[in-house]
């Protein structure tokens, strides 16, 4: 059975302690620049609005209706502070089906070690203003990473979710996004720059604790040196 430890944080605009830019993204087509979704992702969907409005890849800044855009609302490129090694690119994944459940998933082989993981998500204004709600659940590297509803979110801004997974056992781990929508018209989501990269670009809580202890030790040493100097 796979075992791992995990630390995560939701970040709207935050500075990372390191950069994963030089690393390779283990998630294939994590920035959705290759179409269709099925080239790297497995799609599952059911409900009244599938396949009529199933998840698709849409271009940024498009005023087109579905499936060429977000029903006339131009979606700006992901401008969140992301540790993804992928460029923002020109495309993102769009979930919009009413009265439906959709899941986009990919299995990624991970060897034991630390991995920086994350993704970016955007709630369009038109979906936020719709009468029907929708929920969004993210799993990255096998970890339940984020769950929220359109009605409880802030529309019109990219939000980045980042964390560090400590993989203890080699194996395949799921990265997936599940969209469950209510009555039409329901809320919608845009997802981009999904990534898993080897190494830790975000200090874990334990690392922060060690850093604090280190600072405390350094302060104690300085105070001790000052006392010795005055005594001399």
Describe this structure in words.
With 232 residues, this protein is mainly beta. It folds into 2 domains: 4-201, Jelly Rolls, CATH 2.60.120.260; 203-232. The protein is built from 2 helices and 11 strands, in the order E-E-E-E-E-E-H-E-E-E-E-E-H. It has a 6-stranded antiparallel sheet with strand order 1-9-6-11-4-3, with no helix packed on it. Strands 2-5-10-7-8 form a 5-stranded antiparallel sheet, with no helix packed on it.
What CATH first level of the largest domain would be assigned? Mainly Beta
Helix content: 10-25%
For the record, the count of structural domains works out to: 2
Span between N and C termini? 62 Å
Mean pLDDT: 84
- How does CATH name the architecture of the largest domain? Sandwich
Q: Tell me the radius of gyration.
A: 21 Å
List unreliable stretches of 5+ residues. 1-21, 207-232
Describe the strand arrangement of the main beta sheet, using strand numbers.
1-9-6-11-4-3
Number of helices: 2
Query: Which structural class matches the secondary elements?
Result: mainly beta
What would the principal axes of the Cα set say about the shape? Answer: globular
CATH superfamily of the largest domain: Galactose-binding domain-like
- Strand content bin: 35-45%
* CATH topology (fold) name of the largest domain: Jelly Rolls
**What composes the largest sheet?**
6 strands, antiparallel
Number of strands: 11
What is the element string, with H for helices and E for strands?
A: EEEEEEHEEEEEH
